[in-house]
Structure formats: C-alpha cells, structure tokens
Amino acid sequence: MSGEATEPIAAWRAGIDALDERIIALLEERMALSRQIQQSRMRDGGSRLAAGRERRIVQRYADRLGDDGARLAALVLTMSRGAAG
Known about the structure:
mainly alpha
C-alpha cells in the first residue's frame, strides 16, 4: 500500500478512536445517571429496574440498528444496572 493510501486510513482511524472515546464517556455518563435513578427508586420503596422501560429502550435500538442494535441495547442496559445497592 502506498503512503498516499495509508494517510486517509490513518485519519479515518483517528476519527474512529475519537468517536470511541466519546462513546465511552457517554456510557459512563449513562451508567451514573442510571445509578442515581435506581437509588432513588429503591429509596422510595420501588424496584431497581423498570422492565417496561427497558423493553422500549431495546426496541428503540432495534428500530434504528437492527438485531445487533437490540443486542447492543441489552449490553448497555446490563452495564447501566451495575451492582445492586
């Protein structure tokens, strides 16, 4: 591969790396918000999880991203649940 061909690839990879950093930061932010919601729900005597809401989230991801989106949503939800307490 010539040097000319690898320059745009390196730039695109740098762009992907930057996006990955943003995605990770957004996941961390989502996990923190989810933790606050779970703690509030439990303090008020409710359950930690809202199954109906989780189904809607999975469906939203599936609608936009297909079956892989549904799997991604399930993983994001698992990460966001964290440890009980």
